[in-house]
Fold:
Amino acid sequence: MGRLNTPHLIEAAVWFAIVAIFFGYTFEFNQPIEIYKFGATGWPRVVVLLLLLATAGNLYYQYVHGSAVQPGRVGVAESDDSEADYSNRSMQIKMLAVLLTPFIFAWLLKPVGIYFGAPFFIAAVIWLFGERRWRSIWTTTLVIYFIFLIMFVVLLNAPLPQGNMSPFYDYSGWILKINTNIQNLW
Amino acid sequence: MKKFFGTGAIAAAVLALSTTGYGFECAVKEGTMAKPGGFPERALTMIVPYGPAGGSGQVAGAMAEAVTGLTSVAINRDHKPGGSGTVGMTAYMAAPADGYNVLEHIDDASSAHALDSSRPNPSSDLIPLVISQVTFSQIYIRTNEDRFNDWPSFVKWVKAQNGKATIANVSKEGSMERVTMKFITEASGMTIQQISFDKGAPRYGALLGGQVDALFEQPGDVRKFLDAGEFKPILTIFDERPSVFADVPTHREVGMKFDPLLRFRGFYVHKDAPADRVKWLQWAFQRGYCQDSYQAFNESKFMTVIDSYRDTAGARELITRSVAQYRDVYKAMGLDVK
Amino acid sequence: MLENFIAGSGALFGDPTTIAIFVFGVVGGMLFGAIPGVSMLTLAAILLPFTAELTAAQGVMLFAVIYCTGTYGGAITAILFNIPGAPENAPTAFDGYPMTQQGKSGKAVGAAVLCSAIGGVASALIMMAATEPLAKWAIRNIGPPEIFALVFFGLAVASSVGARTIWKGWMSVLLGLLIATIGQDPVGGINRYNFGYSDLAAGIAFVPAILGFFAVSEIFVQAEKKAGGKYTAPKVSMSFPTIVELWLHKVAVLRSILVGFFCGILPGIGATLAAFMGYGEAVRWSKNKEEFGKGKLEGVISSETANNAATGAAMIPLLALGLPGGALTAMMVAVFQMHDLEPGPLVFYNSPDLIWIVFAAMFYANLSILFIGLIETKTILNLLKIPFQFLAPLILLLATIGAYISRGLVLDVMVMFLAGIIGFLLRRTGFSIPGIVLGLILGKIGEQNFAQGMQMVHYDIGTYFSRPICALLIAAGSLTLIVGIYKAFAPASKTS
Structure:
């Protein structure tokens, strides 16, 4: 096993899996292109092949040198000394919630829209970052929500996701109608 | 450089003179229309399935400006580029059909439906409000080109290169551009390497810089190069010579027999939108076409060279004909038409 | 030239509205560049529809000014928060953020202010003198084969920076390239890797990826520290570098101006490669290579001089050919077109007034970084006093809007948060996040130009290498690659 340890093997497995999935999927779009010899799959397959070589090279390097930084490398980030302790369960759940909440918010943008979803998202993030005073949570939420509405809706009229499900879409429509009335004031 | 610019100025003047010869008559007489049930009481959202800089982005901007000028109803353009217009179309079909959401799209929607009928049919799944740009394609070469100077000499030169001559074209397989090029090469018996560019500017830069020998494009998109006297058309792919390009032979004149595929851009609303709202939108967009600002825009894009206007019925006819045409072509090409 | 410049300056400062737009651009670009989570691209995307209300000269000038000051503004967040406002500020974070951790943020910001101004002003001057002749040369001598060669060279350089080993450097870059293949292929428009999700036909854009990898993942790191009770606000100092300190780096500044300008002038590449190359060259010529990445002032200087030096240069292909060098210059094309103008050789003849207002504005915008930069930086520093649990939702919401606005796709917001999670997980594994981002940015350009080049030379490699610029760049990139691999097999240090 040389200097290989379990994290090295997991890392290699993840990268080999990426290589396998991306190579396998090329057969889904393996159509010839009339005017181009290498077709739609030529470039991705070369990239996948090079990634396979680089991953193998990386594994070999780790086999010989472990996690050592290669001499002469530039711009390598210092290892983070404040690594959190993931042995306790509440820490694991907290971080999982922090990582997944924004993703769920993004996933809900299509049906729910940003106008309805934003305040809940803001409040959730404040809570996840450790704030437990409810008064503080909702006042900050309102302040941020109004900054957002004034800046992007009233001043800039930015086209933002309105949602496509009732009653969320109707709520977005209501906000936009108020905005139209405000715009008509000047 | 002075000399070069002089040529450009003369070319521009000639073109300007020739385009002003086209009179324009507005097909929609009513200058105002009552809002049905207060609709629209807020800004409309116009989904544009392409970026703001291309032909679609520009026509969407010009039409939005015209409609807002006419009705005082703001239109927020929501650009959703990608997937040759499919991403914007999918987003539009998922948006509520309440009349507040309208769509800009081009003939790509028709060719996509022709290839795969599960994709929305612009003439039946949508209601065309107006088609406001219809144009044709041409083959261009550099004006200072000394190896050939017209279509016959170009074909002769290309044949002598044994397939090594190049022409810049768009990238999408099955697109109007690629299908038309296929017709041309087959009809003229020449082999030419098409170089694919998905964006306009690099495509034009390639001809300008001598990276390719010719270019397939629509006149409005290369107007600046025509005005500058840098490019010149040697073949028009249309049934008759538009007077602006009176010196350029059409594909039929040089012995090609295929029906030309046209590029068209228009505005749509979902078929399930309330009928009274659709009626108002039809009026607003068809009348918007008549606004001076929109007409000036169309003229600057060579969109008054042939009749660019289609109302709902005319648009449906154009779309249906195009879909049938593409379907025939795709079948003949051996593509898997669903 | 001087006459034109004076006329341009007169037009710029002779009209109160134009002055107001100029000031708005300077402050707005810097602010949006500096606020974590949004960037100058966000501001540009939001402002685009409004430019229709301005004159063409005002609209283009506004974007040009945002480009100059936004490129600088991104450095502030790169240095203070390890969040580059744009990819061109990524190398600034390599040394800038360690300097902040060491309590030397003032020195880093001061150097960024001064070097951005110097790089930008120098670039603006060269741009004014050289645009026309250089454009004529490039249009005939730089084609797709050369662009591909340049992309290859750029990626080879990127792979040697930021990761723990050459292998991880290449794995990072190749992952970026692989992500870039998602969406339609650039030759036939065939859908690739859509995994049954139709929006993926639009491909993965780099703006949300940048926001995710840098802004969002940094917030996750702060959240982790909060959860683990280890959060400490960044140490901020306002001790600016002395003139002597900066004078010692005059060679680095000059080298970065040249590198930045050269990279910026080539269409489709822009300031990002300029910053990476500027940084890479600084390392290559340094006697103390190992000090880079640990808080070396020269790292900040090289990167910030080079990226602002690219701003003026990037205007050359844009104005002369209509070819944008990056995302912001691409938006400028839209501004031109909204006014029924096309950037291109004709602009020089039809609208010389526009050109010279823009040139003059860029010159003054870069100069104003010197004066407004420091004041505004202090304002930004006050952001740090806001408790992070209140700053985080604001940043995340702004980032959501920033990711969504340029293409109107919820997919982009999801990509951003996913990139945030991946960036968070990759942090301790020695991979290079800037490498992934650069691979993503250059992937599509690289593939497209490779395909076009191959079609042009009829798949004949001999013809390909008979183009001298092409051969030179491929050779240089290959050499970088071979040296890197050779070193990978040399004995490693014992530290782990």
